[in-house]
Design goal:
Number of helices: 9
Order of helices and strands: HHHHHHHHH
Structural class: mainly alpha
Helix content: 55-70%
Distance between the termini: 107 Å
């Protein structure tokens, strides 16, 4: 009886190790594809991993990186939904997911038509940035994005910026998606360009007088 029990434990341990190894290999393959910008195959790999191992050890990290890959494909609504339903298991990713959800909602708003729906998306993004700032007042990215989204809501001018990568990553090797301050920099640069266009439109320089054109500069 004892020998049979030991055999069962050994078989169970072997199956567990094999399962964990398969999960890890799928996860690494998906990460490599995402880092190479191959978001569509990465999405398929992450979904295959989650479907095959719904209670696996990497479900939180895989879900987070899946949301990042969807974001890379400009599927902002889907990305926001995935960040909102991130499984428990990684406290750091859970906090970052809220900030990234704000980014996804803001990007969806920037490419939407002006109206109540766009304002609602911006308002939700603003709430996530505010939550991120309450959690960490030193979060410069959240502070910049908060100000830009607030300005967009007040001015009702939301030109569509390029789609950057979100912040954070779920790879145990540090190979997850990591956009850092890309969202802030691109949105801020877009806002600066919009202000420059407005300045050129409304504050054109006065033409010089004919008598002053060929005068020496002394």
């Amino acid at each position: 009886m004892q020998r049979a029990l030991l055999l069962l434990i050994a078989l169970f341990s072997f199956d567990a190790v094999k399962s964990n190894l398969e999960q890890y290999n799928l996860f690494r393959k998906a990460n490599r594809q995402a880092q190479a910008g191959q978001y569509a195959p990465a999405v398929r790999q992450y979904r295959q991993l989650l479907d095959r191992y719904p209670a696996g050890l990497l479900r939180c990290e895989a879900s987070f990186n899946l949301a990042c890959a969807e974001y890379g494909m400009k599927h902002y609504r889907r990305s926001a939904e995935l960040f909102a339903t991130l499984p428990p298991g990684n406290a750091a990713l859970s906090k970052t997911a809220g900030y990234n959800q704000g980014n996804a909602l803001a990007m969806e708003a920037f490419r939407s038509r002006k109206g109540a729906g766009q304002e609602a998306l911006l308002g939700r993004a603003l709430a996530f940035y505010r939550r991120a700032l309450l959690d960490n007042p030193q979060n410069a990215d959240a502070r910049i994005n908060y100000e830009i989204v607030l300005r967009a809501m007040q001015r009702h001018q939301t030109p569509p910026p390029p789609a950057p990568a979100p912040q954070g990553g779920g790879s145990p090797e540090g190979n997850g998606q990591d956009g850092g301050g890309a969202v802030s920099r691109l949105i801020l640069e877009n806002a600066r360009q919009e202000e420059a266009r407005a300045m050129r439109k409304y504050f054109k320089p006065l033409p010089s007088k004919p008598s002053e054109r060929n005068q020496p500069d002394w």
